[in-house]
Structure to design on (318 residues):
């Protein structure tokens, strides 16, 4: 006799098949995934104090110390180490094991021969000073892309483990994150590309900055104050130091590239109303400032920074 088809029975059989497959699969999981490994979770070790050259991110939400001075409140943030190939906030230029070796104003002191301040180690780290004397190699020029040199300290876990060190951290102008390292940038190294400062015109020099990764005709390498009493001899000294700064930053055998580029000092000042004027200031004006620039001689645009270019072809664009 022919048996009738019963959907309910088939569904029950299918269900048993699914259950059986699931049980067999579960039983085979240990073998399929490899041997079980015994053990217990362990807490990651506490990181030691950073070394000079270590790239770091700055954690301003975890202040190590807050000091109140006559100049205001100074907050010293914690830092976390990171591989320099990845985007980071800055680089460690010096480390002191004794926090009392810093005084409040040392964190933001201008570059001097006093190596307790963060300024002097930052200059040495960049290759801007003579190793033996600590004197500036390109005085009075200061590199444009270099920002603050500030104090930092251990994070919460490090402090809980008893660490009390203080470090000086060099940050780029604009406080942006960047990959790479600025170590020795003016003594055989290469300044990170994002630290470069470019513009489309030489006057006013400071009001038309553009990214150096785009079209530009002028790159600014240094800035220096210019007093009202500046004479021709003082300006010549500025030009000599400017050429040295550009040669160190670009590593080009001929920074003028056979006449395709022009290394120049551009001086401007502001009158009492704040209007920019070319040339050194007079006694009635505000203090002026000079820019150490490299300009495309024929106005042909460049497409990236000249920092670290060496003997490579000029990066023309368009």
């Amino acid at each position: 006799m022919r048996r009738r088809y019963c959907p309910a029975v088939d569904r029950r059989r299918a269900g048993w098949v699914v259950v059986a497959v699931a049980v067999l699969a579960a039983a085979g999981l240990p073998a399929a995934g490899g041997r079980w490994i015994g053990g217990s979770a362990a807490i990651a070790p506490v990181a030691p104090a950073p070394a000079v050259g270590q790239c770091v991110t700055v954690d301003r939400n975890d202040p190590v110390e807050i000091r109140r001075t006559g100049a205001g409140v100074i907050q010293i943030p914690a830092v976390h180490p990171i591989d320099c190939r990845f985007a980071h906030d800055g680089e460690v230029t010096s480390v002191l094991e004794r926090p009392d070796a810093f005084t409040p104003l040392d964190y933001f002191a201008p570059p001097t021969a006093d190596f307790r301040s963060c300024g002097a180690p930052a200059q040495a780290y960049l290759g801007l000073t003579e190793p033996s004397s600590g004197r500036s190699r390109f005085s009075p020029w200061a590199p444009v892309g270099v920002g603050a040199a500030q104090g930092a300290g251990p994070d919460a876990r490090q402090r809980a483990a008893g660490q009390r060190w203080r470090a000086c951290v060099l940050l780029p102008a604009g406080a942006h994150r960047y990959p790479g390292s600025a170590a020795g940038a003016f003594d055989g190294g290469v300044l990170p590309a994002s630290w470069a400062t470019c513009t489309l015109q030489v006057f006013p020099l400071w009001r038309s900055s553009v990214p150096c990764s785009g079209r530009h005709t002028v790159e600014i390498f240094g800035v220096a104050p210019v007093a009202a009493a500046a004479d021709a001899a003082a300006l010549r000294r500025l030009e000599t130091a400017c050429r040295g700064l550009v040669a160190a930053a670009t590593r080009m055998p001929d920074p003028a590239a056979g006449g395709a580029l022009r290394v120049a000092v551009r001086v401007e000042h502001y009158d009492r109303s704040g209007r920019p004027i070319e040339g050194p200031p007079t006694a009635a004006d505000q203090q002026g400032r000079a820019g150490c620039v490299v300009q495309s001689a024929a106005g042909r645009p460049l497409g990236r920074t000249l920092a670290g270019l060496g003997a490579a072809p000029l990066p023309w664009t368009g």
Notes: The two ends are 90 Å apart (CA to CA). The helical segments are 7-32, 119-126, 156-160, 232-250. Residues 11-32, 104-116 have pLDDT under 50 and may be disordered. DSSP finds four helices and twelve strands in the chain.
